[in-house]
Amino acid sequence: IFAAVEMAPRDPILGLNEAFAADTRAEKVNLGVGVYYDDNGKIPLLAAVRAAEKARLEAMPARGYQPIEGAVAYNTGVQNLLFGKDSALLANGQVVTIEALGGTGALKVGADYLKRLLPGSTVYISDPSWENHRALFESAGFPVETYPYYEASTRGVDFAAMKAKLESLPAGAIVVLHACCHNPTGADLSDTQWDDVVAACRSRGLIPFLDMAYQGFADGIEADAVAVRAFSASGLQFFISSSFSKSFSLYGERVGALSVVTSSKEESGRVLSQIKRVIRTNYSNPPTHGGAVVAAVLNSPELRQQWEDELAGMRDRIRAMRTGLVEALKAEGVAQDFSFVIKQRGMFSYTGLSAAQVERLKNEFGIYAVSTGRICLAALNNKNLGYVAKAIAAVVKG
Ligand code: PLP
Ligand code: TYF
């Protein structure tokens, strides 16, 4: 039965990890995958997470099945992060939240549910977007198209083109929006642009699906929820996927959530019942550990403060690396202005490096980046920054 099976293409980003692991050069640097490393080049285990895990280990809880939608303490914690604890939507019972297997799992549960709800719809993702968005919605059975987003000449968002496209979409079209820290470009919308996106979604009857994978990595938990808050105030119904892979440094625990805003508590009950059906035929119910740890941190004032401080530390370190890279490139005599790297937000920068330059970085220096020119700033540290800047300078100068 497998004789005619073709080799599937590798995930372009996760595939880089395999190539990097096989590279024997000591000076190699992996700027490919979106993972936060500390200044020693290690994936941190946050102190708040460690404390919650220690308490959990001591309590030795039994491992029964979770409810299909996950634990109430977790789902409530997620809702408070997204909507703010004083949210009218929450008080009205208008938000349905389920624990999901990372941000990816949340997107997939949302996509599968949407396919049942609106089988004839089309999904629109930003051009460019996270590598997995297209494949994920296609695997749920949707045609996937793009809306204009990044404009290379300005290193920013071509908002006029984006808005014009949204205003031309048919009612019921699903629009996937990066809530903050756009992956891969690092270019985000301004607050007033978000208001315009909300207005376009309202006037055209679009279904917004916000992907929140980096809450806290731009300006902070509250500030980075600006898009969620703008949609919340609009009276529209919308979807949000949350990922805690980065913000809690819990990549392998697969901790995420899907939230859906409905028009009433009664509607929420019906929507939840349908989402539970989607989950039941997929993985039945979520694993216990990661969600329990995140819930413990979010629901303890002390641990929550400690986590926010640690998150601020990650955010500040990435910012320092952005500034450091720009200065180091200047010091290497690079004439081209790289100051846009400081303005981009989150983990990534679209550097403008060509595929050929990225290939040279790998072959000549053992520095791995995505062929689109995306680099992960969170993989830079005080030890490799100078080496990376020299290498980029070499390939930029020709
Ligand atoms: N959405 C975006 C925009 C991402 O960058 C990522 C990256 O990991 C995800 C979703 C998936 O998150 P997770 O790793 O929690 O599945
Ligand atoms: O964009 C990134 O690098 C991260 C990590 O299929 C990632 O979001 C990349 C690819 C993938 C899953 C996670």
TrEMBL record:
<keyword id="KW-0808">Transferase</keyword>
<dbReference type="GO" id="GO:0004838">
    <property type="term" value="F:L-tyrosine-2-oxoglutarate transaminase activity"/>
</dbReference>
<dbReference type="InterPro" id="IPR000796">
    <property type="entry name" value="Asp_trans"/>
</dbReference>
<dbReference type="InterPro" id="IPR015424">
    <property type="entry name" value="PyrdxlP-dep_Trfase"/>
</dbReference>
<dbReference type="GO" id="GO:0033585">
    <property type="term" value="P:L-phenylalanine biosynthetic process from chorismate via phenylpyruvate"/>
</dbReference>
<dbReference type="GO" id="GO:0030170">
    <property type="term" value="F:pyridoxal phosphate binding"/>
</dbReference>
<keyword id="KW-0663">Pyridoxal phosphate</keyword>
<dbReference type="InterPro" id="IPR004838">
    <property type="entry name" value="NHTrfase_class1_PyrdxlP-BS"/>
</dbReference>
<dbReference type="Pfam" id="PF00155">
    <property type="entry name" value="Aminotran_1_2"/>
</dbReference>
<dbReference type="InterPro" id="IPR015422">
    <property type="entry name" value="PyrdxlP-dep_Trfase_small"/>
</dbReference>
<comment type="similarity">
    <text>Belongs to the class-I pyridoxal-phosphate-dependent aminotransferase family.</text>
</comment>
<protein>
    <recommendedName>
        <fullName>Aminotransferase</fullName>
        <ecNumber>2.6.1.-</ecNumber>
    </recommendedName>
</protein>
<comment type="subunit">
    <text>Homodimer.</text>
</comment>
<dbReference type="InterPro" id="IPR015421">
    <property type="entry name" value="PyrdxlP-dep_Trfase_major"/>
</dbReference>
<keyword id="KW-0032">Aminotransferase</keyword>
<dbReference type="GO" id="GO:0042802">
    <property type="term" value="F:identical protein binding"/>
</dbReference>
<dbReference type="InterPro" id="IPR004839">
    <property type="entry name" value="Aminotransferase_I/II_large"/>
</dbReference>
<feature type="domain" description="Aminotransferase class I/classII large">
    <location>
        <begin position="27"/>
        <end position="392"/>
    </location>
</feature>
<dbReference type="GO" id="GO:0005829">
    <property type="term" value="C:cytosol"/>
</dbReference>
